[in-house]
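Data card: per-record layout.
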Amino acid sequence: MEDSIEVILQDHSAKYLHRYPDNHALAAGSGALLAGCYGLWAMFVLPGFRRVPLRLKVPYLLLSVEQTANVMKLLQGRQGALADLGSGDGRLVLAACSQGFRCTGFEVNPVLLAYSRARARWSGVPAGHARFVNQDFWKTDLSGYSNVTAFLAPGVMQVLEEKLLAELPDDGRVIACRFPFPRWTPSRTEGSGLDQVWAYDVIAVRKPRPQNPAA
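The structure for this 215-residue chain is written out next.
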């Protein structure tokens, strides 16, 4: 992956140099911009990827303010522990803590993990209300959580369905951000477009679907 990115950067730089042979400043600036983008990618996305199987890898996706508010609406009236799968910069965990939840954010990227922990300290979150763990949630038993939030990629949602159905209690609720579960019917939804979120009640998902009567 790193080698392919470096090849792309070289190709881009070569194109700019060929197009503007007399403008060395523009070429240098373009190269610096691309190198900076690669540096950010390597810092926030690459660390931790090697620990997760290829088919389950998910890039860091930034949660918007509106999306976070929509998740909080779907958590109203809920109780119990909350797990945020792939907690990123920790904003969803901190928002849930402000509503009284005891939360665990699962994150394998050490840079994002350190930032999340620092952010929790800066925000004055009481000790024990927010935990950020360097742990692969795919290999973790989630049966102790009544609430699960997930902002992952579409390609892993079906696999996640199977894991959550096998582990979560009947009174559990799962909230998916931006990308819904492909085979589940949501109990509620909030927002629209990129900020849409879906809530799934485990007991409803576990009910067998009615079969069409034979003709």
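Known properties of this structure: Residues 18 and 91 are 44 Å apart (CA to CA). Residues 24-44 form the longest helix (21 residues).

See the next section for split statistics.
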